[in-house]
Amino acid sequence: MRIQRRPRRPGELPRAHSAFCAAVLIALAPMHAIAEADLFDELYRQGQKQNGDLRTLTASFIETTTSPLLTRPLVARGTLAVERPSRIAMRYTEPEPRLVLIDGSRMTMAWPARQIRDVRDVGAALRRIEKYFVGSSPDELRRHFTIAARPADDRPAYLVTMTPKRKQIQEGVSRLELWVDRESLLLSAMRLTFATGDTKLMTFSEVIPNAAIDPAVFVERKRPN
Question: DSSP character for 198?
């Protein structure tokens, strides 16, 4: 179901990009992983073992979006809450309040200032992402992606670059870059490069694994009449 369809405004990027980003975060926000290539398998194994104890995660984020259609990057800030297996709330606070909420297979995107409210089924997308990132082994990941991993130059993290080999994936995202904190082994940043040339970089801070989360965080707040 979709509520309210309208032409895109100048400078407004496809909402599918936000949907894809939110779906990837369900799989990757609590991801422990990967250092240099020769350690990939062992660290992947350790990460998967640690992931078994991870049920929730909260963080603050800064999202930077670029596009050939934009004269300058769009920068937004907000908070993230993830509850496995399939609940996520991205509440943007700047420059305008808006919400991306996934509960099971249902995604709600609400942007009151622009009178946007969009509800759609993302179950198929979540299942595809889970197939690639959650249910895979290192060898299986390598069948779908060209993977390069090294210490990051600009922060105390490992940088993992994943370039899809399959056309089906390339049509959605052409490159995925993950920065994994060296100390906590938690995801500290993520950049998606889309086939359109758009990019979306999310940088996380104040990351708290297994945080207590109020169930109301995953409920859309009704606008006052």
Answer: -
